[in-house]
């Protein structure tokens, strides 16, 4: 077999052990570049893919290669960028709009939001890699791309980076970035002013639609109906759709099944709370942006104590820099501890039962009276059990005390509810994701 046939065989072997989305994301544009003695060189399209294959799939790649080339002992990775595709005319390409009659204006993207300024870590690696892949071939791969995670974790940065990259490659592209709230307001305004024709042109005669915070479409039947048709129009003509949310599609209350299923047609990628190393890297990057120098102990203190999201990290950094500039002080660990004292105390010690109740009610779109009540339908029992679990594990309440907080429920009911969630965390990935997002909201400032 030649190199191409060998690699095709290797990919066939690897593909059966991975999900379609995983395989497509990491192996689609790879090739066996050369074999020299016992060293195999693989061509990969970008640094994201190189790092991911080295860290996550290296052993599997090596063992699979050895099935076909016995003497291979080392696998190396070389970045070989994919050339832009040739433009071809499609048989069923939609007609170009009359530009004199109508022209879509691109959203003014924030130039700071690029892939180069996005710090990649374990918490966001998949989302970053798929976002970059989408920007290179919009409409061809991962369509739609659905990114979810808590507030301030970088979803908007990634979405705008996609828009910036598409326009960087081709300024004539029509890329629309919009919040779900603005889409809703535009739709309502179009109905009131009888200008639905213009509204449809605004959102359908484009090359890419990037929508932030789609969860706000919850229970808006008219807006969901219009978004459904807009989605279909764009998707059927291979135009890119990128959507962000604070939770996965199936966890959005009041979202029609037909939309929820469509949001999962492409790639669903989550962004979670950054770990210590990523937080430290983000702080160093922000310091470079602001042209300020902070010592390693200061950066370590911030990264160790501000754990919620990127926005809070930057806010803490701004507090320290501003305080030192206004008072003409040199930054020190003592000053940092003083400036952030209230912030860090609040984040660690101010979780209350009221905040848990409010967060759960907001997340599941239910009323407190129903959480405290006796109704046993699934839509209420599940959130109620999560409240029990959080009161037990985050506030260390006894079972009888949790029962009192929940309207006088028996402690055996509380024990059962806590065990139900504890058991679910071992088996149910959706529950893990939801609980992670809920905790981010609980401890956000």
Description:
The protein is an alpha/beta fold and 445 residues long. The chain folds into 4 domains: 3-79, GMP Synthetase, Chain A, domain 3 (2-Layer Sandwich), CATH 3.30.300; 125-271, P-loop containing nucleotide triphosphate hydrolases (Rossmann fold); 276-349, Helicase, Ruva Protein, domain 3 (Orthogonal Bundle), CATH 1.10.8; 353-443, DnaA protein, C-terminal DNA-binding domain (Chromosomal Replication Initiator Protein Dnaa, Chain: A, Orthogonal Bundle), CATH 1.10.1750.10. It is built from 20 helices and 8 strands. A 5-stranded parallel β-sheet has the order 5-6-7-4-8, sandwiched between helices. The protein has a 3-stranded mixed β-sheet with strand order 1-2-3. Strand 2 (39-44), helix 3 (47-68) and strand 3 (74-79) form a beta-alpha-beta unit. Helix 17 (378-393) packs across helix 19 (411-427). The N and C termini lie far apart (60 Å). Residues 84-105 have low confidence and may be disordered.
Short description, anyone?
It comes from Candidatus Nealsonbacteria bacterium CG23_combo_of_CG06-09_8_20_14_all_40_13. The chain is an alpha/beta fold.
